[in-house]
Design a protein that fits this description.
- With 59 residues, the chain is mainly alpha-helical.
- It has a domain at 24-58.
- It has four helices and no strands.
- It has helices at 6-23, 25-35, 42-45, 47-58.
- Helix 2 (25-35) runs antiparallel to helix 4 (47-58).
- The two termini are 26 Å apart.
């Protein structure tokens, strides 16, 4: 079994994150629009959009 070096692991995580952000772009954009102009109220006003973003990123 081959283990990944720290650099390979970091590169893999960066690539996976970039892919997830690309695939989930519409959902992330909707969440960002909800957050615009909010500070404290974002915690409850955009909760449903946050859950959708999290589910998309997990996939």
């Amino acid at each position: 079994m081959n283990a990944l070096s720290r650099r390979e692991e970091e590169n893999l995580l960066k690539a996976a994150k970039a892919f997830a952000l690309k695939e989930c772009e519409p959902v992330v954009r909707e969440f960002a629009e909800c957050c615009t102009g909010r500070f404290v109220s974002v915690a409850w006003a955009c909760r449903s959009q946050l859950h959708v973003v999290q589910n998309c990123m997990r996939q």
